[in-house]
Design a protein that fits this description.
273 residues, alpha+beta, Jelly Rolls, 3 helices, 16% helix, globular
Length: 273
């Protein structure tokens, strides 16, 4: 009898205090997750609404598995998959074969890290623009030197040179980056869930779809300028996420479902009895 009471008391306690995993904010057009890639070795399947996939341009980055630690958030998660560039020309995204992303407001999210210095020349990071390169509109992310991330925009008939985002990559340290564009108003950057910069926005139009997409460079045609780093998750939304929503997405990436904890605990209890 005491054993039965102990079992049900344990289950009741866990049901009260096990945190329920946050859900990913729905509606991403592009959603790339290295831990959930049903594609073949030379592509990264889009789990988002725009569907399709990103093909490896010349050679696919290496799929690896290891621990992701984000010191600023107190996160340490083992056995996570991610793609790592080992040399120049290892990028995802082939011009003319990408999903098409129609945006006015937009949000970009990356779970990533920098692994070292330059492979060849100035580093790119990622790009989302319409064909041809630097056409009607686009978002291009650059490395300023080896540590800092910058952004350049062309949209609404205007073009902006590379502007700092106040995002810094420490070598070998994972970080969660979000960049949010509110149409005609602002571009706000977040690192590890906190706002780090804000600048004027640009006018984006959905008719100019972003279909030159590159992960690891900011354009298929300039993929030789490959970022020396790793990507675990990449998302693009056609809406401006709030700081609260960005933090929900961070939480959802590493949370453990309460039912998973219960099932594991129940198995351990049964072993003892």
């Amino acid at each position: 009898m005491r054993r039965i009471v102990l079992v049900f008391s344990t289950i009741f306690f866990l049901s009260l205090f096990c945190p329920v995993a946050s859900a990913v904010v729905p509606g991403a057009l592009l959603y790339l997750d290295a831990s959930d890639n049903p594609g073949h070795k030379k592509s990264w399947t889009n789990l988002g609404k725009a569907e399709g996939e990103l093909l490896a341009a010349d050679e696919a980055p290496m799929l690896e598995e290891g621990k992701i630690e984000i010191p600023a958030l107190g996160i340490s998660e083992a056995n996570v998959k991610y793609y790592t560039t080992k040399k120049s020309l290892q990028t995802f995204g082939v011009e003319g074969k990408n999903p098409e992303l129609a945006v006015e407001d937009w949000t970009l999210e990356f779970l990533c890290k920098r692994n070292g210095g330059l492979f060849k020349e100035e580093h790119h990071f990622a790009g989302f623009q319409n064909i041809p390169r630097e056409g009607k509109q686009g978002i291009r992310l650059w490395m300023e030197g080896e540590e800092k991330l910058g952004i350049s925009i062309h949209a609404g008939g205007g073009k902006q040179g590379v502007q700092p985002l106040n995002i810094k990559f420490e070598e070998g340290i994972w970080t969660w980056i979000a960049i949010v564009g509110t149409n005609k108003k602002s571009i706000v950057a977040y690192q590890d869930g906190k706002q780090v910069s804000k600048q004027d926005g640009f006018e984006f139009q959905k008719k100019w779809v972003l279909n030159d997409i590159s992960i690891g460079a900011n354009s298929h045609s300039e993929r030789r300028r490959t970022f020396n780093g790793s990507f675990a998750i990449v998302r693009v939304y056609d809406k401006a996420l709030t700081e609260v929503q960005i933090n929900e997405n961070i939480d959802s990436a590493f949370a453990v479902e309460a039912m998973d904890k219960l099932s594991t605990t129940w198995a351990r209890i049964k072993e003892k009895f």
